[in-house]
Amino acid sequence: MVRAGGTWRxxxxxxxxFPDPRTADRDGLVAVGGSLAEDRLILAYECGIFPWYDAGLxxxxxxxxxxxxxxxxxxxxxxxxxxRLRKGGFQVTLDRAFEDVMRACAAGRTDxxxxxxxxxxxYAQLFVHGHAHSFEVWMDGTLAGGLYGVHVGGLFAAESMxxxxxxxxKIALVTAVATAFxxxxxxxDVQFVTPHLAxxxxxxxxxxxxxxxxxxxxxxxxxxxxxxPRWPP
Length: 233
What we know:
Elements: E1 2-3, E2 29-32, H1 38-46, E3 50-51, E4 60-62, E5 67-70, H2 79-87, E6 91-94, H3 98-106, H4 117-128, E7 132-139, E8 142-152, E9 155-163, H5 168-183, E10 187-191, H6 195-199, E11 203-205, H7 207-217
Parallel strand pairs: 9-10
Antiparallel strand pairs: 1-2, 2-4, 3-4, 5-10, 5-11, 6-7, 7-8, 8-9
């Protein structure tokens, strides 16, 4: 792995380590290269860093400034979404179809995807060991939407979401936020604010604010493996 500025390097076989995310370049790039081994991925999220890159490139590791987050106090449910939640006609599950959710998130993107086969393999290993989770929305017995993310201590880092039916991704996201915080999660990371996420209440923290919250959150012990999904009241 080589630091973006070229002043830091570590052999891929060495014990995993990362530069201080505060040394990221103006775009948030912290380091280039290395593997997607489980211990390296977990350390990355503990440090406020995540991988994001295209096919044909080595892993690129990022810590953007500002950083987007969600929490129940800022979560915004439109009238139509509240009506949809009250109406029902769907089921939300946790960890029933993790790899299916990842593949659905990767599919159908006209601008390409960073969810490459090696990413799916790597995050599937995190899932097997309880460090990654998926929320699935089912309608008429089929997968209608969902999201997946990484869980470290009191952090849940949502990586991507998708929908095949109207409101599928919104239902997954608001359920994930309500469920995670109810279980003890303190920091729900969504990386970047998009118009879609902004409409649901996502807001930004400076990198320093994010890292300060992360330092507290990652010390918590939170079990998401046995929780039951719930949506906001």
